[in-house]
């Protein structure tokens, strides 16, 4: 298959997905978002599997990748609904941290233009010397940054799903059309040109 085929496009899409997932994983680690961290980790593994299957002509691996892209799209739709507070969801809940911490998205305090306002604590021991009060001046609210991240992931996943199905169909057609004994040669591999029977008899009974 040439370099401008669906296979090469799928390799590019998997590489792009891998880079986007690694970028997202870094910021989810900084924000202690444990549920997205686990989802990103699984996504990275499946994308690597799909990339390997595409390079090594393994349709089964690509099928696993295609199935996962559908799950990944569903997960990112949930993330969008979570941050947009659709269907009773609240972006201020601890759902993404498994209710073990009150951390929010890293972008909530470090978004473009955001300025943190802190005040000293007094009379409380065992805590840091400063307590977070508010964030002001954000050019873009953090939930919209998270929505854009998820939207980009959905877009790549959908395109990757289409190309994965195409590549699997191409690989399957090539396997069906290829004869593993004789290749593409319509004649048998061990074809022997036999001489006519009467000619053999003539050679056997030649006079001395």
TrEMBL record:
Pfam families: NKAIN (PF05640). InterPro entries: Na/K-Atpase_Interacting. Keywords: Cell membrane, Membrane, Signal, Transmembrane, Transmembrane helix. Residues 1-21 form the signal peptide. Its main location: membrane. GO terms for cellular component: plasma membrane. It is found in: Cell membrane. The chain crosses the membrane at residues 34-55, 62-86, 152-171. GO terms for biological process: regulation of sodium ion transport. The keyword Membrane applies. It is a multi-pass membrane protein. It comes from the Eukaryota. Belongs to the NKAIN family. This is Sodium/potassium-transporting ATPase subunit beta-1-interacting protein. It comes from Junco hyemalis (Dark-eyed junco).
């Amino acid at each position: 298959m040439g370099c401008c085929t669906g296979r090469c496009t799928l390799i590019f899409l998997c590489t792009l997905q891998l880079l986007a997932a690694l970028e997202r994983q870094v910021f989810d680690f900084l924000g202690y978002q444990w549920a997205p961290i686990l989802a990103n980790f699984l996504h990275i593994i499946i994308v690597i599997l799909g990339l390997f299957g595409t390079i090594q002509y393994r349709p089964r691996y690509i099928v696993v990748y295609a199935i996962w892209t559908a799950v990944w799209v569903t997960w990112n739709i949930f993330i969008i609904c979570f941050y947009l507070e659709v269907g009773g969801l609240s972006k201020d809940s601890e759902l993404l941290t498994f209710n073990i911490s009150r951390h929010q998205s890293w972008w909530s305090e470090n978004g473009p233009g955001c300025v943190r306002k802190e005040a000293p604590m007094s009379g409380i021991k065992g805590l840091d010397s400063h307590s977070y009060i508010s964030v002001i001046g954000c050019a873009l609210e953090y939930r919209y940054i998270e929505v854009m991240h998820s939207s980009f992931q959905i877009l790549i996943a959908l395109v990757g799903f289409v190309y994965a199905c195409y590549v699997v169909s191409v690989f399957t057609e090539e396997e069906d059309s290829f004869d593993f004994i004789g290749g593409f040669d319509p004649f048998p591999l061990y074809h022997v040109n036999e001489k006519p029977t009467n000619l053999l008899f003539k050679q056997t009974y030649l006079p001395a």
